[in-house]
Amino acid sequence: MEVIRSKSNRLIKDTKKLHQKKYRKHSYLIEGWHLFEEACQAKADIERVFILKEYVDRVVGDVPVTVVSPEILQELADSQTPQGIVAQLALPKTMVPKELRGRYLVLEDIQDPGNLGTMIRTADAAGYDAVFISDKSADIYNLKSLRSMQGSHFHLPVHRVAMEELLAQLKEQGVRILATTLSHQSIDYKEVEVTGPFALIMGNEGQGISLLVESQADELVHIPMPGQAESLNVAVAAGLLLFSFI
User: Fold this and answer.
1) In which element (H, E) is residue 56 found?
2) CA angle, residues 238, 243, 246, in degrees to nearest 5
3) What pLDDT sits at residue 231?
4) 152 pLDDT band (50/70/90 cuts)?
5) Beta carbons of 107 and 119 less than 8 angstroms apart
6) Taking all residues of the chain, what is their mean pLDDT, rounded to a whole number?
7) In the chain, at which end, N or C, are there fewer CB atoms within 10 A of the end residue's CB?
């Protein structure tokens, strides 16, 4: 059994480039057994598996397997303690549905990959139909995003969109737009009665929602905070709202 041990190996060097967004044109990396098993269950297009020799027997099916040393696996992984496997997957091809009739989470310019992944995972847990992320939001295929999502991108569609186009489609199709803000025009989220299709928009960690979103929203909502903190982490706020509106 050949084991790749050299960092200068061409395959290893090319694969490691997938840590950078600019090289993730067609493929991305996942690490750990949980995400790999989720990918298998979702019948994702697994292009190659990099694995330690003691785990080779755990990979079944027609998947190209490359055995590497622990040092090389550490090069390909992002975490400090990789679990013995890194897989390269083809990027899925997703298209925004022509008709929107469900419950959606919209993330506008979310910068932190951990926040992004956590909110997608929460939308998955709450049974939402899809997540839309703006062009300026973090990459969901960042390894930190992937760890935070814990495979939720295999369960529900995640679409990267231009906010202007998405808002126009939501308005045209009568999807109620709820946007979070601390402005004086917003109301307590507990006063909102949600029926029919809707989209919940969470804004940027520092700036909140844009003026465009504020102008297009059907309802501006906030979470009352009786304590002294000025704001909530956006992922925490999303969790409260996502479950309250189902």
Assistant:
1) none
2) 125
3) 86
4) very high
5) yes
6) 95
7) N
Q: What is the pLDDT of residues 56-94, one digit of tens each?
A: 999 988 899 999 999 999 999 988 788 999 999 999 988
CATH among 3.30.70.1280, 3.30.450.40, 3.40.1280.10, 1.10.300.10 for 103-244 = 3.40.1280.10
Domain ranges (residues) in the chain: 10-90, 103-244
Q: Quick check: 1 pLDDT over 80?
A: no
Determine the residue type at 156. L
| 29: nearest Cα among 82, 91, 84 | 91
Measure the CA–CA gap between 68 and 6, rounded to whole angstroms.
Answer: 9
Strand spans (E) along the chain: 27-31, 46-51, 65-67, 85-90, 103-107, 130-134, 158-161, 176-180, 187-188, 198-202, 219-222
Q: Which two tokens stand for residue 219?
A: 């309802």
CB 194 within 8 A of CB 216: no
